[in-house]
Amino acid sequence: MNRIKKPTDKIANIETRISRIIPENVATNLGDNSLGAWGLGYFGATQGSIPWGERRVKGLVASRIAVGVEHGLAIVNGNVWAWGWNINGQLGDGTIENRAAPVRSGTLKNIVSIAAGDLHSLALDRDGNVYAWGKVEFVPSGTNLGTDNNQKTPTQVRGLENVSAIAAGATFSLALKRDGTVWELGPIIVSSDQIYGFIPKKVEHLIGISAIACGNSHALAISLSEGRVWAWGYNFASQLGDGTAQDRPTPVRVVGIHGITRIAAGRLHSLALDRDSNVYAWGLNTDGQLGGGTTLDKAIPVQVPGVTGIVEIGAGFAQSFAIDSNGKLWLWGEGVAGRTPVVSSDWQGVKEIAAREHFYAVRM
To answer: Whole-structure pTM over 0.85, yes or no?
Structure first.
């Protein structure tokens, strides 16, 4: 007897044909998939068990990506999709259920940028509005709200408009307004009794800023006028680049670099790219993430040797990445290469990268 075809069969066939025409373009690496952070459609599988060519986030053709400690975000046609760990609702689907494949984050539309912290997520729409979800509190830090303090769906951050860029650290975030001012969402330097207070607070003494970046517990910003870099937050490994290991609650100038066009921050190290395509690194270097061939920490920026034609940079927990003008990926540090940069033979045609404990790349 002939099987009666269901409508779902037709849909599945259409999806299969579409996937052959428009292949999934978000590739993943590093870490593992125990909580679904690779977005493969199932949990489990160690890094070495799946060939790279098959390690793609299921069903996504994305324009932008972001990565938290164990979850990922992507923009697809102005909508936000998320996958992985969801213990605090950081996927934004209204649940705290882990997801092995992407799910829609609320009903967000016209999103142009995303960012992911350890347990929270952010989105920026084309009108300059910011949305947050996961472990975020729209109250002053230190307020006691009881046991369930999660935002399981995207919620607009009030008092924060005309934003042009966002970035997320472990437990804090930054927003850059169109007027060049920078605003903190949650404190960078946190006392033991504080929670994730997401009331916007202006960062004093910063004006004319053109770009921002967040490490685990430190922040970077570029001044538009001279391309100089400012840094603040924790400074255990000299990741602020001011020549000291002293924590800084307010911004200090990073020593010795100018003409900077891009910045990136890892767990305890920082990167900068200048207008001549030179890459600089400073901070912790135990895994060779500074790229100079040693494991010596650096309290001020040093140029990364051997990388050329670079147009974009990224930093993971203990790794560094760069994309050149041909879409080739350079990498160095823990689990990706040695102590000096190499060009990956596997990762070609890359146009955007995001890294923390995991690494994502958008293919051209």
So the answer is: yes
Whole-angstrom distance, CA of residue 327 vs CA of residue 238: 31
Distance between CA atoms of residues 155 and 247, nearest Å: 32
Find, among 314, 294, 56, the residue nearest to 329 by Cα: 314
Q: Is residue 132 within 8 Å of residue 122, measured between CB atoms?
A: yes
Residue 295 within a domain: yes
- For residue 321, the enclosing domain spans 215-364
Three-state secondary structure call for residue 27:
strand
The number of beta carbons lying within 10 Å of the beta carbon of residue 65 is 24
Report how many domains make up the chain: 1
What span, in angstroms and rounded, lies between the C-alpha atoms of 335 and 29?
A: 10
Question: Domain for residue 293, yes or no?
Answer: yes
For 230-269, give one letter per residue: b (16+ CB within 10 A) or e. Answer: bbbbbbebbbbbbeeeeebeebbebbebbebbbbbbbbbb
Report which secondary-structure segment, H or E, holds 300.
Answer: strand 298-303
Q: Each residue of 194-245: pLDDT tens digit?
A: 555 678 999 999 999 999 999 999 999 999 989 999 999 999 999 999 999 9
